[in-house]
UniProtKB/TrEMBL annotation:
Segments traversing the membrane: 12-31, 43-62, 89-110, 116-133, 145-162, 182-201, 213-233, 259-281, 293-314, 320-341
InterPro entries xref list: YkvI-like (IPR038728)
Keyword annotations: Membrane, Transmembrane, Transmembrane helix
Keyword Transmembrane helix among UniProt keywords: yes
Species name: Melghirimyces thermohalophilus
Name of the protein: Uncharacterized membrane protein YkvI
Length: 345
């Protein structure tokens, strides 16, 4: 079939939507993984961009070649059938807990808007269910609408901030740690590997031409890399204020009108939403092979069962669950990056 640019862009926006969760959009991930290391952190974003591009292309190529329907089939190719059985359940657990964090994050966001935590949770559940009804077409259409809005707002905020405060750094920004910065780029890429694996592994039958793999991987990685660089460069200008904000993005808009702050809060909610949809979508397609129900029924049931657990609180869930999967993410990323050498080299 012929190469279609628009289809490639829709895939790339789905990749961006999977990676731009609340952590990225709020600036917290960018600061913790890059900005906290000082001025040298900006150049290391290039390494993370390259790793993201490589892992994305490898996963898409495997999915396209073997026409996979869920992440377990890709894991079989990357780490072998025996190990994939163990990691299958670990990825499943990660997607469940990550979704739980996103749903709780929606509740916390509504609380910031002086609304009900429970209402925020229920709105997220209903919004995720709506997309699941339309399967992959719904996921890609949602991202093709929301991602340009989210990225445009974040770019505008950074550019507006730099215009008001000056474009060039005038002082050195010392490291907050003596550790080298390059391992952080690897850790950051690994941090997103499971979510990418869950979504991209379902796209094999949707790819019409191999060039779509390279274009979608290149566009998404370049967009994420440029946005991360711009975000990081802006946050370095207010490094003394970042510690005062749970959401570093608000340090860049502290002089903005309340309407703008509300709009940016909405962007943060959309970031939570796109990640939640990606995780539930990947999980439901995996479970659909084990259960005699369509993916949207499975996904809807899963997210409804998670609702009572959101009472544990957003901060508590992040602090305890995210570090748990760090080593697993690093292992899977390593095996994905080595796959072309070990299996195709």
């Amino acid at each position: 079939m012929r190469f279609q640019l628009w289809h490639s862009l829709k895939i790339s926006m789905t990749i961006i939507g999977t990676m731009i969760g609340a952590g990225f959009a709020s600036g917290r991930e960018i600061w913790e993984f890059f900005g906290s290391y000082g001025d040298g952190s900006s150049s290391i974003i290039l390494l993370s961009t390259f790793l993201t591009f490589t892992s994305t292309v490898v996963i898409l190529k495997i999915s396209w070649k073997y026409k996979t329907q869920h992440y377990s089939e890709v894991l079989n190719q990357v780490i072998g059938a025996r190990m994939s059985r163990v990691f299958d359940y670990l990825v499943m657990l990660f997607l469940l807990t990550s979704t739980l964090v996103m749903v709780a994050g929606s509740g916390a966001t509504f609380q910031q808007w002086n609304s009900s935590y429970t209402l925020g949770v229920l709105v997220m559940v209903a919004a995720v269910l709506l997309i699941l009804l339309f399967d992959l077409k719904g996921l890609m259409s949602m991202n093709s609408v929301l991602i340009p809005v989210m990225v445009s707002v974040l770019i505008f905020v950074c550019l507006q901030f730099l215009q008001n405060s000056g474009w060039f750094l005038t002082t050195d920004h010392p490291k907050t740690t003596s550790l080298p910065v390059w391992p952080s780029a690897i850790t950051y890429t690994a941090f997103n590997t499971m979510s990418l694996l869950a979504v991209l592994s379902t796209m094999g039958r949707q790819i019409r031409h191999p060039a779509e793999i390279w274009v979608s991987g290149g566009v998404s990685s370049l967009c994420l890399g440029m946005l991360a660089f711009l975000y990081n460069y802006s946050l370095l200008r207010v490094d003394s204020l970042v510690s005062q904000y749970e959401i570093p993005l608000f340090a860049l808009v502290r002089d903005y009108s309340p309407i703008w702050v509300l709009s940016i809060s909405l962007v943060l909610w959309m970031a939570i939403y796109t990640t939640a949809v990606s995780n539930v979508y990947g999980l439901s397609h995996r479970l659909s092979e084990l259960l005699p129900f369509p993916p949207w029924v499975i996904g809807g049931t899963v997210i409804l069962l998670l609702v009572p657990l959101t009472r544990l609180g957003f901060a508590t869930l992040v602090n305890y669950l995210y570090p748990l999967f760090g080593v697993i993410n690093l292992f899977i990323l390593t095996m994905v990056l080595l796959y072309p050498i070990m299996k195709e080299g």
